[in-house]
Write a structure and sequence with these properties.
With 474 residues, this protein is mostly helical. Helices cover 74% and strands 0% of the residues.
């Protein structure tokens, strides 16, 4: 089968479950053999067992037909394919090189593109350009059709434009995490936009992405799960369809299930997110590797990270680079390659110090200092903390929902190991820094996880810390 149907096999392995849900819902094959092939692809994709081999006795033309049908069916609803067409037509209209066949395409899309379409706003704006193009040339043949479409859907267009302006302001607040005062109001606005079935898909998807970040910032993963159950059904329809959007959805689901400690589901969705390589591959890969580490699959993680190192050199995204490097350091640590982890962190910090301090400094230093802790380089930790004012900077994050005093704890442990502070000072300082955080279910779990990590070095002291912290919860 691998020889005769190798190309077809690899094609079917690239398909997503939601794509096949959609294809099964729209198929109308007259030949039973075509439906049989599609059902096998569907079952292979949805099964937890190894995929079944395809029957080589079936005429290869049937496989070719089904493959072509799948490609064409998905391309028709792919919002990214349509966006590329929009960009091309914008250029042709604005540069006066539009052909009669192009005009026919535009007119045919007017029958299909309604206000709920993903790129309705961009299509509406294309028609505005096209109307001007016709008016200047005194071409009256299509003016009435274009004007009718623009007049009919003007209110929907204006509504979407205004809502997107509002989303832009909300986005700025969410990214800056300046939402505490208006927390419920922002959540309500985003929910209302997402559930508004009169809006275009792009605007609704922008709302759900911002809700995802919002829930992540406040660690409200139970709320996110409720929203994603609804989104899951929409992802089986043309509304939000493209491989890019599905990969993003799978990656976000993986992160959510990981935070809910549903690791089997998290792994399933994380692997789906990297199934088709795209510009966010490194970011999605880190999500996957994080899930695998939680399950103790350290060798698998090391293999995946090593395989992806060449891609790190080819990306200009500083955010992704620092995230990847930070997790690669952790990957080396869980595989007990402490010296290699410290050397890699030292070299990367010296080479990209400015970028790190400007961007994801906390993430990087948490990995860097962990490597130094496990290598017993306590004086270097204290030197870094002093030189870059890390504890004060970390304390500025105290009002964030994801705040964790990781650098502070590494610093306190280093001071204790170097006899700068005594046992009582260590215990009292850790308790003081973490006791209020224990009221939060998610952060209490992360604190205990961090204490378990450093307890290997000071087991008696951490045992006292845990006992004291748990007493506050009684």
């Amino acid at each position: 089968m691998r020889t005769k149907l190798n190309t077809f096999w690899h094609f079917t392995q690239s398909l997503y479950p939601h794509e096949l849900d959609y294809l099964m819902s729209v198929q109308n094959f007259k030949k039973e053999i075509n439906l049989k092939i599609l059902k096998q692809i569907y079952n292979n994709c949805h099964s937890d067992h190894p995929p079944l081999l395809f029957d080589t006795s079936i005429d290869k033309r049937a496989y070719s037909y089904v493959k072509e049908w799948i490609i064409n069916s998905l391309e028709k609803i792919d919002v990214d394919v349509f966006f590329e067409w929009l960009i091309m037509m914008d250029k042709k209209v604005l540069t006066d090189i539009i052909s009669p066949s192009d005009e026919a395409e535009i007119l045919s899309y007017m029958k299909i593109i309604k206000p709920t379409h993903y790129y309705f706003v961009r299509f509406y704006e294309l028609l505005q350009y096209y109307r001007d193009y016709l008016l200047v040339r005194n071409r009256t043949k299509y003016n009435a059709l274009i004007a009718s479409y623009l007049d009919t859907y003007e209110k929907y267009y204006l509504k979407s434009v205004e809502i997107n302006k509002e989303l832009h302001l909300i986005t700025a607040n969410i990214v800056k995490r300046d939402t505490d005062k208006y927390r419920q109001e922002i959540e309500n606005i985003l929910r209302q936009i997402y559930f508004d079935e009169e809006l275009d898909g792009y605007t609704r998807y922008r709302a759900i992405v911002r809700l995802t970040i919002f829930f992540y910032n406040y660690r409200q993963f139970d709320k996110q799960l409720v929203m994603y159950r609804h989104l899951d059904e929409l992802c089986k329809t043309p509304l939000f369809y493209s491989k890019r959007l599905l990969a993003n959805y799978y990656a976000n689901r993986a992160m959510m299930h990981s935070k809910l400690n549903e690791l089997a589901l998290a792994e399933k969705y994380a692997y789906l997110s990297i199934q088709n390589n795209n510009s966010d591959y490194l970011f999605y890969l880190i999500n996957l590797c994080s899930v695998l580490v939680k399950q103790g699959k350290n060798k698998e993680v090391y293999h995946l990270m090593q395989e992806s190192l060449p891609q790190l050199k080819n990306t200009n995204n500083t955010y992704y680079k620092i995230g990847f490097v930070s997790f690669y350091i952790k990957t080396l640590l869980v595989n007990h390659q402490y010296k290699k982890a410290v050397d890699y962190a030292d070299n990367y910090f010296n080479a990209y110090k400015k970028d790190i301090l400007l961007h994801r400094w906390h993430l990087f230093f948490c990995s860097y200092l962990q490597a130094l802790i496990l290598s017993e380089k306590y004086l270097q930790i204290l030197s870094l903390c002093r030189r870059y004012n890390l504890i004060t900077k970390e304390n500025h994050r105290i009002n964030r929902a994801d705040y964790m005093p990781i650098i502070l704890l590494y610093s306190l442990l280093s001071e204790y190991m170097e006899n700068i502070i005594d046992k009582d000072k260590l215990i009292n300082s850790i308790v003081h820094a973490t006791k209020l955080l224990m009221r939060d279910k998610y952060r209490s779990y992360k604190i205990m996880e961090l204490l378990d990590e450093i307890s290997e070095l000071v087991p008696i002291e951490i045992k006292v810390v845990k006992k004291t912290l748990l007493s506050y919860l009684e």
